[in-house]
Design a protein that fits this description.
The complex is a heterodimer.
Chain A: E1 11-15, E2 19-25, H1 32-35, H2 45-63, E3 68-80, E4 89-99, E5 103-112, E6 115-128, H3 132-144
Antiparallel strand pairs in A: 1-2, 2-4, 3-6, 4-5, 5-6
Chain B: H1 4-16, H2 37-51, H3 57-65, H4 71-75, H5 77-92
Classes of the chains: A alpha+beta, B mainly alpha.
Chain lengths: 155, 93
Amino acid sequence: MRLEYFQMIDRVVAVTRESLRAEAIVPKASPVFEGHFPGHPLVPGVLLVETMAQAGGYMLLHRQGFVRMPFLASVKEAKFRSFVGPSTLLLVEADLVHEGSGYAVATGKISAEGKRICDAELTYRVLDFPAPDLATAMRTQARRIGLAVPDDLAG
Amino acid sequence: MSSAFDRIADIIAETSGVDRDKILPDSHVIKDLEIDSLDFLDIVFAIDKDFGIKVPVEQWTQEVNNGKAAAEHYFVMKNLATRIEELVAAKAG
């Protein structure tokens, strides 16, 4: 994880059209921990939500052939069950609940060593990429974490 | 079973907090009931689940934006209920 760059997912370990499993390793040090919290570093809950949202987002990107972009629209029933400190290996899971017209709903879940960390229901608006650079950047990121992006797509 | 109108009106009231009594056949979902786009997403999700269909919101929006259909054709409650009934019938074959 590169918290300051919002790169939350390190490696996809499994993906289908309906689910994605990924690993994310919390860095040993980050400027984020200077404020959250001094002397007691914890990953902020909002960044755990972002991590779940990215897992679901990559699942939807993969599902749609990397030609449309999922934007997080709502987070429901987010529950933070355990604290997460530096150097923790996280298992991040996303499962499709429903794909509608221009939107999708997924559940997100994070665990560490079998212990539940957090979960939520996530809704995305799924839109055409608003900028070519974003499409390229997302495909590059997807390849970085191990997703197979079609060769004929830029990025 | 309740009519499509009643089921949709119940969904809207439950999802968006609009008073159920104010949801009438001639109510425009956006102009009269003041449903914003995020609540509308939730409503469509609930309709998709409840009726077992996929409401083609993107297609409807495109038709309205291109001037091929009036917004009222899709977004006035009685017409929305008719559109949903058509989608259910089409799915049933």
